[in-house]
User: Fold these one by one.
Assistant:
Number 1:
Amino acid sequence: MTDALVLLIVLPIAAAILPVFLGILSDRAGWYVALAMSLAHLGLSAIVANAVDTSGRISYAVGGFQPPFGIELVADGISAPLLVLISISTLGVVVYARRAGPHSNAFYSELALLTAGISGVVATADVFNLYVFLEITGLATYALVASGRSPRAAVASLKYLFVGTIGASLYLLGTGYLYIATGTLNMASLSEAIVATPAGYASPTVLTGFGLMATGLLVKVAIFPLHTWQPGAYAESPDTVSAYISALVSTAAAYGLFRVTYTVFTRDFLEAVPIAADAFVLLGSVSIVAGSVLAVMQSDLKRMLAYSSVSQFGLVVTALGIGNKTALIGAVVHLIGHAVMKGGLFLALGVFAASVGARTMDEFKGLAAREPVTSAAFAVLAFSMVGIPPAIGFIGKWNIVVGAVEAGSWSVALVVVVSTLLTLAYFGRVIERMYFTHPDETDVADASVSADGGQPASDVSFGMRTVVVVAAVTAVLLGIAGSDLIDIIRPALEVYFV
């Protein structure tokens, strides 16, 4: 049963190799490989989720070598839903890419490799292998961002490469400091070994390790002011790539930050070193406000969504700093919800660009009349991102606010409320233009050609629109089933509060 856990990583790696060889036979073979891989990945993640639901936490010792010396993979009530999320997101993006592209076999190889990296980040219980999977994720993402046709895509990829390498290097240095202090890399063993060091949590080596690892992961999460790689990477990538990396790449990094903070260093460390928790709260709060303000200032919709992610992940990091059970539940729920909402929003922008050539705020005038179904789905996802019930966006934010109040952090609760109003402001501008503003005659004339590559306006498939609608429906259904989702997550969090 637990073999499915390692296959979630091995299968995409194997699938990344196949398009290279099958490309000799067909230049579209990669899509079929990616579709088969995503369906198999979904089946495997369902097996893992069922095993966790039946037995609780499960683990797999790679090569039969038991931890702390061997490499361990784990799944629990937090990682199992994220693995299912990765599978569903991959399948949705593959279906969308059938018409939207990119169509090269190299693209599908990179997509499969990215799926393997993200799955590894979520499943690993070893801090060094977390670095390995972060690097696999990063390398695949750099290539996917560069698959855009414009020179700006190459520049954005190069910038992401430089900044991402710095973040990964900082994390690796921190891992080295912990290994020097403890002699182990397994997360569970590290939590015990850190306490057993001569100075415990006050050890300069341990403190340095935490600072380097946390900073490296915060770069990957794209917290303000460490976010500089993200707007260009999201905006200049092909729409399919933007949706996938916005949904999962920073989500995986944020999950890694959660695991390192609470599994390796534990809540006792945050209580013994309160400046660490305060730093999370401060950086997260600044990111919440700064990301929202920068999003309001954008006219390009992809850049607006990119800065929105800076704000939304600020919520997650703030919740990690608050550190009580309610806030952490909100953080995990918001990670899941953000992936669904933001991925769906980027896919909707891809439909608008391909059908009517709309990419900027002014080009969205009267868009709802020309793309009614996709516009309705976009509106549902936007209001969910604002936090309007019953969608999933409300559940995550509500628990974070309640957690802040329980901790006496009224200023954080106020920041979240203000950011919600700012989120309403920038999404409200878009909705107003879509539904209540008439298009100019020049806008209608230019709508016959898309803004990306000059494809015909009719070059939007039923599958593309369907994926966007499914994302909107999923955001609502997850909100309605929010209490059930929390019931899955809560037992896995209990171990941090024993």
Number 2:
Amino acid sequence: MYTPKNEIRWGIIGCGDVTEVKSGPAFSKVAHSRLVAVMRRDGEKAADYARRHQVPKWYTDASALINDPEVDAVYIATPPDTHAPYALQVAEAGRPCYVEKPMALSFTQCQEIIQAFESQGLPLFVAYYRRCLAQFVKVKSLIDEGALGNIRAVNIRLIQPVKPDDREQPWRVNPEVSGGGHFHDLASHQFDFLDYMLGPVAEAAGMAGNQAGLYPADDIVTGTFRFRSGVLGTGTWCFTAAPAAAEDTVEIFGDMGKVSFSSFSASPIRFTGEKGAQQWSMPFPPHVQQPLIQTVVDQLRGVGECPSTGRTAARSSWVLDQITGHR
């Protein structure tokens, strides 16, 4: 059973690109929180990260970091294929855990992780940081305040050209490492914040294919889904389109208005209602995970609650599995 602490000392497993700006620095910028140790299998890179970010300790062995008595909580920032093994070690060591998204390779793995933490009364969080970014909080407030009226439907369009390194088949397009492809990496964020705004998805189905043959993962996905509330949704995700066709739009329709916004940029939120059109621009903070990490630290200190838990994150993994048929 976890006992709140006044200060949270963090260790990071996997200090790669995502930790350089998005997350890593935030652990020492949030009040009552410090980053005290990092781990990477490449000792030279681990030492370099520790030096550049003023972290006192570095390791090449995850178990050593997890069991360090000066580490209170662990952030797992490795590719998804190692999330479950590392998370289970963290649970066994009796530490709270913050896991990168998607939470695991499948919904089944998510359930295994949740069970391990709940059986020991340990907090488990997942890095779906859009739940705390101003842009998405604003959209949620429009829905909660009734500006759109009764919500009827959602449409997602994420159309991207081939990424420069896709032909080299990086881990994100290797299903054995990532659980899928760009769809699993990016749509997981979208389904999580829609879950936060509209509640859980009750049914989902779809089709997935590999049209360009550049890598093993799906490069196009279409899906339909129904929320428990009765709201219906559709989506198209294509990662091999022409640059001129690129689009990143989520639209939510109600019987009193419509809101559209971007999932991956700080483009303006556009709302059209009975009194006309409005828009809001809300830039992302320098370290985009910092607002969510603040809520994680608050909960670990016993003075707040984090909105992104293992249970909420697992629901998005379930939707991804249903749409792609990857169980």
Number 3:
Amino acid sequence: MEKEAKIYVSGHRGMVGSAIVRELNRLGHTNILTRTSSELDLRNQDDVTSFYKKEKPDYVFVAAAKVGGIHANNVYRADFLYDNLMIQNNLIHGAYENKVKKLMFLGSSCIYPKLAPQPLKEEYLLSGYLESTNEPYAIAKITGIKMCEAYRDQYGCNFISAMPTNLYGLNDNYHPENSHVLPALIRKFHEAKITNANQVTIWGDGSPMREFLFADDLANALVYLMLNYNEKEFVNVGYGSDITIKELAETIARVVGFDGSHVYDSTKPNGTPRKLMDSSRLFATGWKPSVDLEKGIAIAYQDFLSKTSQE
């Protein structure tokens, strides 16, 4: 990407989008296009078409999406399918119509089958049944990957896809019901600490294993791929190792400073048993993450504290 190139980052106020903007700024890119959802409804094809025709971006990051944890994915199934399909359809097709030089589509590790072998290799896509709780979101993301492949095959578009593992970091969503497990636990342990509670209840039995990548590490990888990767096959972007939810809870409690007990509610769903991504394709190019989990959680907790102080 040339320094003077016009780069559109959709979803720039979200955790991933804001990290991409920070990374682009760090590298000296100043011609960055952003729009809030009130300024541009990405679900509206006419609005997106008008935006593309007016602004003519050279590069596009599709970081906008409707996201949430197990509860939100399971309850708002129609919303997760419709909103994500509309967002990515409009952005990908609009990029083709307006001759965008390169587009990056962001997916999620939930695209993989629930019981796929571990670690998850890119070729395992569509090899089995999806986890039922987040199936609508996963189907939307799989569709986005296939759209990028199809527009490359039919029209020669340089559209690439990257599949991040579980993410956390600055500008995360800490909503008590609609957030992912790591930020949800930060809120739970913090609230238990300030109310002097003697225990925290955690969904599931603590056995599922998850991989976590700091969002700024992801942004560094995405810009690296935008600069260096031009292949049809999508690329996993992970940390390279995983931990149990129980270990995650213990780490967060330690960072937050909560010393009470942890109770696991096994009547609640565990979700997928394990989701460790095989990121060897990316690592082989020389890229590696730089922020370890405990350091990243400490940064995220300070971000959470700054947000709650403003509420």
